[in-house]
Design a protein that fits this description.
about 350 residues; about 30% helix; about 25% strand; 8-stranded parallel β-sheet; alpha/beta; single chain; 17 strands; elongated
């Protein structure tokens, strides 16, 4: 089957670029002695995760217990869930997973840690817990090395838990200082920080400049998108995922409508101008999205598309695109080679 035989909108992955992206980052991290623990929330596809592990990743990262369930069922045995897990149902599922595969998690409060300890006691197992540290994302995470040290001591003291180290996102100039200060505070307690998990695709090529980081979590690097294009971490020639879409209307001389709207393209902007890069018309701007319509201004383009013309869009944020499709197509050249089910899509736990 040729790509042009597919109905649009459809996400298509260039397999040559995908494989090159996986190999490129793995080789870089190997060269600098940093473990690779890729984040599967970008693709949610076990086959791609297996490609990453086959290339040399030590394990995978999942954002949710439900994602980890899918990946464990697919045969992955070392899974990191860097998220505060709260609630009896999720904790029960987490412990069931931890009995089957190697699981580690994070926490940033005594509340979360106490819940993990209680669940681990009931399950009769020991759970590694890392402390999440806020080094600039302003999401979860302790705000100071003093808080990190306090929680590390609590993990060390509570039954059925093991202090697993520190986790941060994104890896940046604050990371090493934060780790060193936390280590100094724990020195008298005899508590060692053996694992420091850093992350982010935009900062992946700077991982070697952070000597405290022992492993790196990147997700978007496998596909690439406009956000990582802006950061310089990927290039147009390395972006592997594009949404193939059709021009379905030309209401005016300068306006066109695509059959890819907010249910196909990411509505994330993060300071970007427009909702995607049209490869065939780089000067065009996707200035608005309806659910099934992409509104495009072609006024800056010397040539305008015809109705029925197919174009390809690099989305602003590929992770959200993945979560909106049941299937992703893998192709070489213009030939479809594989159609993957997005196995971990739609899992909410």
């Amino acid at each position: 089957m040729r790509i042009d035989d597919l109905e649009t909108p459809v996400p298509v992955v260039d397999l040559d670029r995908l494989e090159a992206n996986i190999s490129r980052l793995q080789s870089y991290l190997n060269e600098h002695g940093i473990a690779n623990r890729p984040h599967i929330k970008t693709h949610k596809i076990p086959a791609i995760a297996q490609m990453q592990v086959d290339a040399g990743a030590i394990g995978i990262t999942c954002q949710k217990v439900s994602e980890a369930e899918v990946m464990a069922e697919a045969g992955f045995t070392d899974i990191f869930i860097p998220y505060n897990i709260i609630g009896e149902s999720k904790l029960t599922k987490l412990m069931a997973l931890a009995k089957r595969v190697t699981i580690s998690v994070t926490a940033d409060s005594a509340n979360v840690i106490n819940g993990l300890s209680g669940a681990a006691q009931r399950a009769g197992l020991v759970l590694p817990v890392l402390i999440e540290c806020d080094t600039g994302a302003h999401r979860c995470g302790v705000q100071s090395p003093q808080e990190a040290a306090e929680l590390a001591r609590l993990i060390h003291q509570l039954p059925n838990l093991q202090f697993g180290g520190l986790m941060t996102y994104p890896t940046n100039e604050e990371t090493d200082t934060f780790v060193r200060e936390t280590r100094a505070l724990l020195a008298d307690d005899g508590i060692k920080i053996k694992r420091v998990s850093g992350g982010g695709t935009p900062s992946m090529w700077e991982a070697q400049t952070h000597p405290e980081v022992t492993e790196h979590r990147a997700g978007i690097y496998v596909y690439g998108d406009r956000l990582t294009l802006r950061s310089g971490a990927v290039t147009l020639d390395t972006c592997a995922l594009k949404v193939h879409t059709t021009v379905v209307s030309r209401p005016t001389a300068d306006r066109g409508i695509l059959d890819a709207g907010s249910k196909s393209l990411s509505s994330d902007l993060h300071g970007l101008d427009g909702y995607g890069h049209i490869c065939e018309y780089p000067d065009a701007k996707i200035y608005a999205l309806s659910e099934e319509h992409g509104h495009v201004d072609f006024s800056a383009c010397e040539r305008k598309p015809e109705i029925g013309e197919r174009v390809t869009v690099i989305p602003n944020h590929c992770c959200t695109v993945t979560s909106m499709f049941d299937e992703v197509v893998g192709a070489r050249g213009d030939q479809v080679e594989v159609i993957w089910q997005v196995a971990a899509r739609g899992t909410v736990r």
